Amino acid sequence: MDPMNVTTDSQFELDDQFMPSLTSIKSSITPQPTIIAGQTAQLPTIIAEHLTNTADQTTINVQFGTSGERIMHDQPIINNEQTPLPTRRNRRPGPYNISPYLTNFGSSAGSSSSQPPIFELKHPFIFDLISGNYDIPLWDAFRSWVRDGLLTKHDKKNHDQDHYKKHLAHFPAAINLGVLLINNKNWFYNLYFEGQLLNNTHIDVIFYYLRKKDKYEIGSSYKYTTVDCVFSSKISSIWEKYLDLDNDIGCADEEHVIGEYIRGYRMHAAIPWHMVDHVFVPVHVKNKFHWVLAVISLNDKRINVYDSYRAAGHDAAIKTEIVKLSQLIPLKLRVNDYYKNKGIDVSQAQEENEFFDIVFIDNVPQQTHGTL
């Protein structure tokens, strides 16, 4: 009979091919001794061999219950070989979470004894030409650079002419001075040599570095700030519109710009006025072709004027320009919450709207008549 084509009439009927195995098991059974309830007994070896499930490698134990019945349980075969634990993965932060200042993460990145690099602290305003504590090698290098390539008779040229040999004044890449890009060496020539005209770009760059020096200097307590040349022109524009009562053109735009200066929003490295004591204002007197420095002393309500050319008729022309500041600045301070931010009681409106005094400072180094 083909064992592969065995058919049965019932699912509980065993085929004849299994009978020899059952006969062998039956002949092996021997009476078991009395087992105390709760103890465990192993079946004979031949039975265990037949009842072993080779698919899941489990053996069958027989336990006896309280009434003596046999209870079979599957028990896994214990493997003597210990499965090794997987190596723990050293997680590293993703690219979005990596600090640009760190290069090593964990023990896998290198020796744990390596020390982080130490960088020397640098500051842009350790040396300056105002206090006298300046870097002599740096100054000598600049002096050699500005003189390199000069024409033999460069001093005979006008201020707007080229003072250098052909193609030596132009820079292949512009120099960024914070508020201005310079691509021509003649700009530095006018700044370095005496008797040259200084335009508003020179003044703006100088005043930019002055306010930046006070803001970022080591141990700075914010004593002063500066404005640019646009500030004075906006003040003059507002003044002229106030005087022309028949003019219907408003000055809201100019007043908004002045408010941005006072609040510290207008320029790079600016400081709000309520945090400083003085404001440096460059003033250009057009009819005299002359620059003066006006220092607004906010605490003293005074404007100090520094003029390098003092004369009777000259002082009157300068004062005409400074009066615009002395009368408009108190008004603009009030409408832009200067006193509120300063923590000053402004209940006395008459006092806060008083004009600032004008004082010409003496003993300022003077230029000779006819020089710039």
From TrEMBL:
Please report which protein family the annotation says this sequence is part of.
Belongs to the peptidase C48 family.
Q: Which residues form a coiled coil?
A: none
Which species does this protein come from? Solanum stoloniferum
GO MF entries? peptidase activity
Q: What is this protein called?
A: Ubiquitin-like protease family profile domain-containing protein
Annotated Ubiquitin-like protease family profile domain ranges read 180-372
Its signal peptide is none
Among PROSITE patterns, the record links this protein to: ULP_PROTEASE
Classification from the root reads: Eukaryota, Viridiplantae, Streptophyta, Embryophyta, Tracheophyta
Q: Which domain of life is it from?
A: Eukaryota
Keywords on this record?
Answer: Hydrolase, Protease
Gene3D superfamilies linked to this entry? Adenoviral Proteinase, Chain A
